[in-house]
Amino acid sequence: MLYAVLTLYSRVGSTHLFALLHVGCPDLDQTTVWFCLFIGFAVKMPVFGLHIWLPEAHVEAPTPVSMLLASLLLKLGGYGFLHFSLPFFYKEKSLYVLCAFLLGILGVIFASGSALYQFDLKRIVAYSSVAHMNLALLGLFSLNYLGITGSIVLMVAHGLVSAALFFLIGVIYDRFFTRSLYYLGGFATIMPIFAGFLLFFMLANMGFPGTFNFIGELYILLGLKTINEGALLGGVFGTLLSATYSMWLYNKVCFGKLRLNPFPLIQNKETKN
Fold first, then answer.
1. Which of 84, 91, 154, 190 is deepest in the core (most CB within 10 A)?
2. Where are the domains of the chain?
3. How does DSSP assign 178-201, residue by residue?
4. The whole model's pTM is what?
5. Are 198 and 168 in contact (CB under 8 A)?
6. Which residues of 183-208 are buried (b: 16+ CB within 10 A; e: fewer)?
7. pLDDT digits (tens, 9 = 90+) for 103-134
């Protein structure tokens, strides 16, 4: 990003957004500058191939930091694309859109599939965040009103839902000292109110009709319909996988046998006595 900004300054003589929009970027440097800015925003979003840091960061971070990271910091990448990349680089958009669509489709499918193979609750929600943000990337580069509106709605909805899911995972960890699905189950019998909240936000995470996520995903798919059928199919397949891992996680946590003693501290005290 620093290299792109310095290049723009050397060519235009200013880093003010209005000046850059008025003068434009020379054709000679446009592709280089665009890809440099794209990489910077893609790491923050995160886009497929540059997303590896996010699951690790969520696993190591405490609950408040995970909530802040998912609800606000990831949206800076989408803001950068929306505020800088889309309005500024108005020439040769076909190359840029093709690259964004390819990475977005791979990100939606790969992250959703990876969530099905995880057993750490934070990793599952982290890969879910990657999938949703790559779907938002597809909406942004659909370059039409429906797709961009859906992307903005989905980013706002994802910020609320993912923060709530990380909060609920923090509730589990504070009480049972584990986030592994190997040791969790049967919460609907001992924590019914918690199970109700988890169900609501899991339905929102999978884009259930009537939730905020559903509106964003629907607008994105409608925007992709008239632009690229491959991107549309990738988005639809990603939403189906989202429903799969969301319901799988909820079933593992809230139903079945209670695998973990709900009162580990009390049991330890009784054993000592």
1. 154
2. 45-262
3. --BGGG---HHHH-HHHHHHHHHH
4. 0.87
5. yes
6. ebbbbbeebeebbeebeebbbbbbbe
7. 999 999 999 999 988 889 999 999 999 999 99
